[in-house]
Amino acid sequence: MSRAHLFHEPNFSEGDSVLQALYGFIFVVTCDGEVFFASRTVEQYLGFHQSDIIHQSVMELIHSEDREEFKRQLTWNAMLPQEKSNIPLHEVMLPENIQHLHRSFTVRFRCLLDNTSGFITLELNGWIRVLHGQSPRAEDPQLALFATCSPFGPLSLFDIPSRELTFKSKHKMDFSSITMDNSGTWSVLKTI
Q: What domain of life does the native source organism fall in (predicted)?
């Protein structure tokens, strides 16, 4: 059930709100290295428009020294322990082995916003999963890394993209306002 009726903005989307709240962006890369999806918030962190990187090689976005490690992370059996190194993919997908498909690593991405080195270190955290609806005739399913990408290191107030309509407020359970900071009061007054 949509909660859009609770907000005055006619184009309100819960998905957009989640993406704006996420310190980073959502990234889906096939295990062949093609960018399958990037949330539109990728532009706030890398400076590339979403449409510029989708269906492109992820290797073009990654620092040359990080490419081999990134390729290794895209391999579904890269994290298997020695005693399980020969098990097939369908067994890795079982609940008792699924933890071997988790990925958490850092990589340097090309960044148009950073004028010091041209790269930003991002932490990728996600899972190798089946990319449904792709290559239906293939014997092995198409796999992809579904991950969130967040800037690596401590959160700095200077790194957070400024949003002129961002403010803090406290509400009761019925959504009636208790307190609101000055920028919120100003934003509300501008809309009246």
A: Eukaryota
Give CA 43 to chain center in angstroms. Answer: 12
Nearest to 17 by CA among 38, 39, 50: 39
For the CA atoms of 151, 154, 155, 159, what is the dihedral angle to 10 degrees?
A: -60
Instruction: Return the CATH class of domain 25-153.
Output: alpha beta
Which whole-number Å values give the CA distances from 105 to 96, 148, 149, 158, in the listed order? 22, 11, 10, 24
Each residue's pLDDT tens digit, 74-102: 999 999 999 988 999 889 999 999 999 99
Local structure of 126: helix, strand or coil = strand
Distances from the Cα of 57 to the Cαs of 31, 52, 133, in angstroms? 11, 11, 20
The Cα 178–Cα 93 span in angstroms is 48
